[in-house]
Amino acid sequence: LYDCNDDPLAFPDAPRWAGSYLRRLLRMADVVVAVSSALKARLEALGAREVHLVGNGVDYELFERSATGPVPAAMDAFARPVIGYVGAVADWFDFDLVARIARAHPRATIVIIGPIFRGVEKRAERLRTECPNVVFLGPRPYEELGAHCAAMDVCIVPLLANELRRFADPNKIYEYAAAGRPIVTLEYSSEIAALADLIAVARSREEFVEKVGAALREGADSQRLREFARSRSWQDRADEMLGLIEARLR
């Protein structure tokens, strides 16, 4: 069973020879699992014989337990409202979008939690200099992420809408939902578009900034978000994969 979370050929540093290896892997695999319908179609076009759609998820119980605990001291010290992102700061991070949000909400604190990857350090420093209300908090233990998300007034997914994102199913959407916080994201895929009645889905940077403002004013249905996250737990995803493996063995 080959579990595919992204198109490996869509990464900027993917070597030219990787395509032949991927095609060979897809021919060898008895069952292929993809996290989005676009990725499923992509793998089928590359020669996969049988592709099943199983999206990403969240360790729901861990996030819920953390989210209902005490507010982390670092988060409690920030000026409110707090607009936050949890994830890697890498080539796919949309620095321009975050700068727009920071300028549109100068009294808010934009908190970035996660590692800064090699190659984007200067861009991160420039963003911090140009927008003093942007704070890079660095990585935090996974067990504490729920508490950090719960301390945010709005959680955002500020990633570039490129070819790689078109195939993705961002874990952070499920993690934010497990904490019951309002979520704003770009429309990276049809799966994300289908969540528009639950989270704020924008089609442009301008609309994204507007939806952040609306989320700050209106909040979100926390209970409904948690129920959605519970239905996307990693245990449920694992059970789906186990079922596929057992069916193939039979």
What does the radius of gyration come to? 19 Å
Percent in helix? 40-55%
Give the strand tally: 9
Mean pLDDT level: 94
- Characterize the biggest β-sheet: 6 strands, parallel
Unreliable stretches, pLDDT < 50, 5 or more residues?
none
Q: SS-based structural class?
A: alpha/beta
Main β-sheet, spatial strand arrangement: 6-5-4-7-8-9
Beta-strand residue percentage = 5-15%
Described by the principal axes of the CA atoms, the overall outline is globular
Q: What is the fold's blueprint, element by element?
A:
Elements: E1 2-4, H1 18-28, E2 32-34, H2 37-45, E3 51-53, H3 60-67, H4 73-76, E4 82-86, H5 95-104, E5 109-113, H6 121-130, E6 134-138, H7 145-150, E7 154-157, H8 163-166, H9 171-178, E8 183-186, H10 190-193, E9 200-202, H11 205-218, H12 222-230, H13 234-249
Parallel strand pairs: 1-2, 2-3, 4-5, 4-7, 5-6, 7-8, 8-9
